[in-house]
Amino acid sequence: MTGSPSKTTEKISRKISEFRKKLSKVPQNPEAICSEFTNDYQRIYGADLISICLYGSGARGEYIPKRSDLNFLIVLTEEGIKRLDRAFKVVAKWHKRRVATPLFMSREYLATSLDTFPLEFLNIKQDRRVVWGVDPLKKVTIRKRQLRLQLEREVKGKLLLLREAYLASRGWKRNLVIVASQSLTAFLSIFKGILYLRGKEIPLQRGGLIRAMAAETGLTAAPFMHILEVKEGKATFRRKKMKDMMERYLEEVRRLAFWVDKL
Question: Of 103, 133, 163, which marks where a domain is finished?
Answer without folding.
Answer: 133
